[in-house]
Design a protein that fits this description.
It is built from one helix and six strands, in the order βββββαβ. It is α+β, with helices and mostly antiparallel strands and 93 residues long. The chain has a single domain, classed as Double Stranded RNA Binding Domain. The strands form two sheets. The protein has a four-stranded mixed β-sheet, covered by helices on one side. It has a two-stranded antiparallel ribbon with strand order 3-4. A hairpin with a 6-residue loop joins strand 3 and strand 4. It is found in: Membrane.
Length: 93
Amino acid sequence: MTIARIVEADRKATQSGKFGTGRWQLEFERSQAQRPDPLTGWNGSGDTRTQVRLSFKTKEDAIAYAEKQGFDYHVVPAAKTSLKIQAYADNFR
């Protein structure tokens, strides 16, 4: 059975704005274990579904797609972080 993970997109560490946040991605769980390639030594598997990421505007759209396709799914919300805003001079108090 195909298992999907629905993840809330979080802003990247190099991103200062809020562009792209609040979007949801549907990713597939790995169905085969990775194994080292005997020639290169890199890990890999025959499962190519982990390379697919579908983007949705809302969580409900992603869930509706997963249910329509018959995927088992679980929802992973983004970690909420809070910033402590302070002046540079506060570092020397």
